[in-house]
Amino acid sequence: xxxxxxxxxxxxxxxxxxxxxxxxxxxxxxxxxxxxxxxxxxxxxxxxxxxxxxxxxxxxxxxxxxxxxxxxxxxxxxxxxxxxxxxxxxxxxxxxxx
Length: 98
Known about the structure:
This protein has helices spanning 29-49, 77-93, and strands at 57-63, 69-75. The chain is an alpha+beta fold and 98 residues long. 13% of the residues are buried.
């Protein structure tokens, strides 16, 4: 997945959390991260296709303490608000159902 620059995962946004360095011996974090990475890549392609810049809003793959994949949305408040409005419009257009 590529973004607006070589280092699109850190284009001015802090994607680390307080628990980002906690690892438990024997937990397979890689499998969970791979699953989360695939989902984050799909979401990021959808964002790019919708006119968003990944330097402003993006999905980031991670894992929880049990090694389960987690996808976090990170972005500037204005851009996340714009994404929220887009999703609300889509939900209203088909009764909120898929």
